[in-house]
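Same chain as my last thread, 401 residues:
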Amino acid sequence: MRESRLGDAVNRQTKVAIIGAGPAGLMLAHLLTRAGIETVIFERHTRSYVENRIRAGILEYEVAALLRETGVGVRMDEVGFRHDGTNILFDGALHRLDFGALGKHVMLYSQHEVVRDLIAARLVAGGEIMFEAEVNAIENFNQGKPRICYRINGEAAELDCEIVAACDGFHGIGRASLPANLVREYDREYPFGWLGILAEAPPSMDELIYAHHDHGFALLSMRSASVSRLYLQCPLDADLAEWPDSRIWDELSTRLAHPGFSLTTGPIFQKNITPMRSYVAEPMQAGRLFLAGDAAHIVPPTGAKGLNAAVADAVILARAIEAEILTDDPAPLQNYTQTCLARIWKIERFSWLMTSMLHCFDDHSAFDRRIQRAELDYYVNTPTGRTSLIENYVGLPIEGV
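reply #2:
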């Protein structure tokens, strides 16, 4: 077991340095360890912070299968929720999308639980995670021998490696280290946010409901048999003080209403507002530095793709690193950006579609609103539309899985 906080303030070496102990970084380390490739993970936060950082957790079919196949899916299958369908609600009518037609399902299992499982597996395998280690420079990645400069316990230290994987999020040092003249950014910020709550209340349904309503979007989800997770579209600058519990429950009841439905309420113990954004940085690599997960792309949560996109990057990068190190084939690493982005832009499209189709926009004309209704009708009431929505929701194929 090698959970490090103090570390050794001396020069060290490894094959792959991974910055960030989120889903991308941990999955990459997990896959490389299984292939016999040495890695070191740097994480600037404490282990407790990382393991309790609450995020959503719809796991695509292939991502859930990957966790099982690589030995980290036991708790997911014990306490997670298997969903064989999901629901779209508009004009007061509920429409169920049945995943069984494709022989697939998704798992509802929170991101922080996935992180806990991957950390536990890494430590059991003897892999190292340097918690509270701040990476302040990535040097020489264009010269073929990268060096990580970091601080831990107030001391400066360095680590030499062959490959750097920056899985350190949107504000991390990874993308910031790429040459500015190399990077092209694509960005869209949405003019609303999600007011999310956790409530001590059994889920009102056993599957999710994505609701389009004239008051705005709503989502019914769950965290356990006794805890519900729900969301409301709200102004981006909304003040939580203006959203007392009674107002939240009233809005949820209105937006989720349909025949035979009754919303289960209970004490709300967490509230937060999440902004909505689509973002892609191209390329995802320079020299021996490679980006994965939120360091390279962000999707609005409507499509439930953030964690899944990060894991897919990790799989593609792991297979590419294995090809170079174990079989002396550099092509997959050279083509990493191209391989990832072919999938990422489809994920961005789907997340944009779900966001555009289900939310209310203040600048929409009457024509825009009728087009929105037509899109909803097409995707839930025609065979082609339903199949397309289900295929994207349960997850596109991941190269290497």
